[in-house]
Amino acid sequence: MKKILITFLMITLVASLLLTGCSGSGATKSSTEDTKPSQSDTSLEDIKKAGKFVVGLDDSFPPMGFRNEKDEIVGFDVDMAKEAAKRMGVEIELKPIDWDSKVLELNGKKIDVIWNGLTITEERKKEIAFTKPYLENRQIIVVAAGSDIKTKADLAGKKVGVQSGSSSMDALEKDEKTLKSLEEVVEFGNNTEALMDLKIGRIDAVVVDEVVGRYYISKKPGEYTVLEDHFGSEEYGVGLRLGDQAFLSELQKVLDEMKKDGTSAKISKKWFGEDIVK
To answer: What are phi and psi of 243, to 5 degrees?
Structure first.
């Protein structure tokens, strides 16, 4: 009787261990499958089938993308995206996003492209794909029309305005030689105030993003001059998911066509007063 009982207990223990082992193996496999990232990407066929692609943008960045007095989203990049989509036989859906989360929005498939003055960097290239640069944004120097300031060297002993906390301020600070030569750096809450003070002679020049500066001064023809010298540049491109190569190829093709036939230049002149497309 004792021998039979021992045998029964051993069989029960082995069965229990086997069940536990199977259960553990199954749970591990299920967990791995649940957390494995999707390898599928949005193909050009998906875009064509949907009849549109979704453009992620910051809707408060004039003149690239912003809301007008009718609360419509307009701008240089908006016009460029609409024209590109038209040539691809689809439309665009504009989706304002948190700019700090733009890459997450793109790779999470909440949007199909980031098209809103997106700077191409080596770090971003590790996470997303880019079209060829379509615009070069420089830190330009704006002076009043008729000013005797012709070069960066002529700023010595002058008062120069910049928007507080802007990339223009950063660019100026990196040029230590020019910075030390200035009489004063005057900081403003926005570029409109800086250009206003330039117009009435309170300061001698303004350092500003080219895309922003040319937009504002295009509204005041004849009042300002942009110098050839500048404080560095950065390139803008359209951002897509790394796997969307067919979509990228088609988009690049139409962007090249737009530049070749003068459409990009026409859109640029509308927003900047001249052709600054790269």
So the answer is: -85, -10
Q: Which two tokens stand for residue 19?
A: 């069940």
- Give the H or E element holding residue 217: helix 210-218
pTM of the model: 0.69
How far is the C-alpha of 198 from the C-alpha of 89, rounded, in Å? 46
3-class SS at 254? Answer: helix
Rounded CA gap, 237 and 272, in Å? Answer: 18
Question: In order of start, what are the domains of the chain with their CATH numbers?
Answer: 44-134+237-272 (3.40.190.10), 138-233 (3.40.190.10)
Could you tell me the two tokens for 273? 């007063």
219: three-class secondary structure by DSSP: coil
Residues contacting residue 145 through CB under 8 Å, at least 6 positions apart: 222, 223, 224, 225
| Location of structure tokens 């497309």 | 277
Cβ atoms of residues 140 and 227 within 8 Å:
yes
Q: Which two tokens stand for residue 50?
A: 């949907």
d(CA 227, CA 173) in angstroms, rounded, equals 19
Instruction: Taking residues 83-96, report their average pLDDT.
Output: 96
Q: What is the C-alpha to C-alpha distance for residues 178 and 96, in angstroms, rounded to an integer?
A: 38
Whether cis (ω within 30° of 0) applies to the bond prior to 96 is: no
- Lookup: tokens for 15: 């069965």
The string of pLDDT tens digits covering residues 40-76 is 577 778 888 999 999 999 888 889 999 999 999 999 9
